[in-house]
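stage 2 :: seqdesign
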């Protein structure tokens, strides 16, 4: 419901990573909007002019962005994600906004996968972010976070019983239990 109040009719919208389900929805709601897509590496400068779009959509993209130079650092530095967010900021018009969905790395499902000693084997994610990480990255790249929370979008879990047990265990042990749903939704505005 964070998109309800957006006035995007006649605006320029960049779909990061190509056409998306969110883009399809917005095309129906705002038929006069101009959609920009690109087939390029999102870790490097976008071939788009400064302040050329009003809205950026990133649905299930950030988790696939590898660090730019894996040989220089021994740990993850999220340089690919940071570069992508900086470029999104550059191409957005003053007051422009970015809408992001990405899997949550601290969801019950992710924790259960880790405890079972597999990390979503069918998955090609470089790094799944935690909600506070995404908030920090957005703020670090000069965005004001307007909305950020986790939601379930995939229906029932295959391991629903284990998820319930894990949630109860975490609650009993006084671990944080908020923002443990599968997908992070964020809306941020360019400063």
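stage 2 :: out
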């Amino acid at each position: 419901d964070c998109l309800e109040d957006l006035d995007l009719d006649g605006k320029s919208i960049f779909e990061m990573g190509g056409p998306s389900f969110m883009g399809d929805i917005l095309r129906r709601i705002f038929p006069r909007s101009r959609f920009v897509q690109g087939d390029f590496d999102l870790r490097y400068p976008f071939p788009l002019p400064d302040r050329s779009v009003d809205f950026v959509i990133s649905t299930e993209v950030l988790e696939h962005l590898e660090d730019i130079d894996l040989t220089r650092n021994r740990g993850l530095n999220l340089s690919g994600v940071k570069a992508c967010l900086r470029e999104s900021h550059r191409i957005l018009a003053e007051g422009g906004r970015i809408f992001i969905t990405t899997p949550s790395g601290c969801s019950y499902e992710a924790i259960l996968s880790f405890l079972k000693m597999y990390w979503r084997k069918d998955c090609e994610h470089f790094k799944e972010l935690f909600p506070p990480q995404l908030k920090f990255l957005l703020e670090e790249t000069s965005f004001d976070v307007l909305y950020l929370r986790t939601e379930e979008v995939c229906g029932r879990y295959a391991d629903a019983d284990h998820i319930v047990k894990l949630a109860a265990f975490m609650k009993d042990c006084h671990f944080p239990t908020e923002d443990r749903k599968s997908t992070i939704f964020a809306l941020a505005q360019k400063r």
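stage 3 :: structure notes
- The helical segments are 21-29, 79-91, 108-115, 131-140, 160-172.
- The first strand starts at residue 12 and ends at 15.
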